[in-house]
From TrEMBL:
Keywords: Nucleus. It is found in: Nucleus. This is ELYS-like domain-containing protein. Pfam families: ELYS (PF13934). It comes from Aspergillus ruber (strain CBS 135680). Its main location: nucleus.
Amino acid sequence: MAPWDDFDAIFSFNRNFVYDGKVIEQITSNRRVLENRLFADRLLALLGVKAVTKLYPPRSNSDLRTLVGHITSSSLDIHHKQALIYYILKDCRTAGDAAPHFARKCHLPEKYRLFIEGLWNLDRLEFRRAVEFLTEPSIIPTFPDEILYALTLSNLPKHDDSLVMAYYFTVSPPLATEKVQKAFFATLCRASITEAFYFTRKNDESLRRSYLEQLIVLVHKTTAGQIRSKRAMELTSLPLDEKEEQWFEEALLQGSAKALHGAKDTVMMRRLATGKLSGLSADLESLGGKKVDGLNWDVLKQSMPVRNT
C-alpha cells in the first residue's frame, strides 16, 4: 500500500488534478470578506510557510503538489498534517468522497475531522453548518477568538447573532483582544441591553467602564424607532451603582457619546428616573423648557421628587 503522504496516492482519483476556476474565485472572494485571512491561511501558517496567500489556493497541478509537499514535509504531528490534507481534499468538488475516504484510510481522529469540517465551512461562509461542528464537545478549542470574531461580522450575507451567542456560551472564548471584545459585546448589546450590562460586571474595572461606554454609544446610534426607544428605556432603567452612575454621565457629557443625538436627554431621563435632580450642571439646566416626547423638561422636573443623594 502506498504511504498516506504520497501525492499520487492522495490524488489517486486524478493525479493531474487542478482546482476549478470557480473554486479559486470563491476562495479568493471569501478571503476578502473575512478581512483577508481564511482559517485555511491560519492552518497553513502553522507550517512556517511565508506568503500563504500565494500558496493557497493552488492554481495549477504543480502548485497543488508544492502545497501538499509543504504539508507532508512539515514538522507538525501526523494528525495535523492529515487534517490539512483532508481540508484540501474537501475543495475537490469533482473528487466524490475523496476526503472521507482519506480520513478513513488514515484513521483520522474524529475530533480532527470535525474541527476541519467547521473551519472549512467557515471559510465557505456557511456559518450555521460551521457552528454545528465547532461546538462539538470533543473538539479542543483552537482559534476560538478568531472564530467568534468571524461570526460577528455583520456585513456577511448569512450573519446571525444567535450563532455568535451559541458559540460563545458553548466554547467560552477568552476575548483576549480589544477587537474581539468590542465585536462580541456589540452582539450581546443587540440581544439585550440588560444582559449586556450584567456582562460588564464580570470584568475588571477598566474593561467594565469601556463596555458600559460602548453600550451607551450603541443605544444612541440605533436607528430612530421602536427598537431605539426600547433600548433607551432599558438603558436609563439599569441598576447602576455609584461608580457606574459616574461613568454613565461622564460618557454622555464628556466622553465618546457626548456628540451623539440625545446624549444630554439621556442623562436627564436617568436623573428623572432616579429622582436625582439636584446639582444639575449648566448643560443639563439649559434643557429647561425643552420638550421630549411632547413633555416639557421643566414640567417633568417639577413633578418628580428630588433626592439629594
